[in-house]
Amino acid sequence: SFEKTKKIQRLDRTVRAFLKSAMNIVLKTLLIVVVASILGVPMSTFVAIITAASLAIGLALQGGLTNIAGGIIILCFKPFEIGDFIETSSYSGTVVDIGLIYTTINTPDNKRVVIPNGTVSNASVVDYSAYETRRLDLELSVAYDSDIDMVKETLLSLANAHELVLKDPAPFVRLGTHGDSALIFKLRVWVKNEDYWTVNFDLLEASKKVFDKRGIEIPFPQLDVHQK
Q1: Is residue 95 packed enough to be buried (19+ CB in 10 Å), middle (13-18) or exposed (0-12)?
Q2: Would you give the DSSP letter of residue 110?
Q3: pLDDT tens-digit profile of 156-184?
Q4: For residues 65 and 110, what is the distance between their CA atoms, to the nearest angstrom?
């Protein structure tokens, strides 16, 4: 079969998927031509029909041609590949197929989304799988009367103790914002791509527990109302 050919197997899987889609269309077109020839349809007549039909179809399917061009752009410049987790203007998910006309992604909640290649090639795309590591940014609020040095030391210790947090670059903690009713600290750590959400949830849960143990208050939003 097409995908089992040794030379084809050496190609990138994104290229293989694209070529499979293109070959499918070409072979079906050739099959129609062969069948018409067997049935005795004169080739000159058939060519004229194909030419006229191609013109009509081309005018009707300008969007389709744009999608084909978009597919070629994706294939050549490789802004992402099959297996990458990407985010477009409307959707995010794992790329499962890059066809001649459409790119298919699976969303985290297991929905399949089919996006025209013309749309993808002309939009901004975030590829979260491009690099092996990723920075996790957290914002944690504490009361205004909290000891700043204690909060920083607590969060740094928490980050350094997590086995999935990378040591280089080292974790970073600083007071980032004076909020309306709280001091907001920024905690930044580097993790492997596949560990991003695990570390995100672990640090959020662990920070609440350690704040409670050390008496560091997480304030509720407050609003002072003065009545005359």
Answers
A1: buried
A2: S
A3: 999 999 999 999 999 999 999 998 889 99
A4: 30
Whether the CB-CB separation of 18 and 71 falls below 8 Å is answered with: yes
Run means of pLDDT, 10 residues per run, the chain, 228 residues: 53 66 74 74 66 63 74 87 91 91 93 92 91 96 94 96 96 94 96 96 96 91 73
As given in the structure block, the two tokens for residue 206 are: 């662990």
Provide DSSP, 141-174: EE-TTS-HHHHHHHHHHHHHH-TTS-SSSPPEEE
CA distance 53 to 36: 15
- Euclidean distance between CA atoms 125 and 86, whole angstroms: 7
36, with CB counted inside 10 A (0-12, 13-18, 19+), is middle
d(CA 123, CA 106): 18
Q: Residue 178: which H helix or E strand, with range?
A: strand 172-178
pLDDT digits (tens, 9 = 90+) for 188-217: 999 999 999 999 999 999 999 999 999 999
**Which tokens go with 21?**
């889609």
Q: Is there a contact between 157 and 139 (Cβ–Cβ < 8 Å)?
A: no
Do 194 and 119 contact (CB within 8 A), yes or no? no
Instruction: Answer left, alpha or beta for residue 146, where phi above 0 means left and psi between -120 and 50 means alpha.
Output: beta
Q: Which amino acid is at 226?
A: H
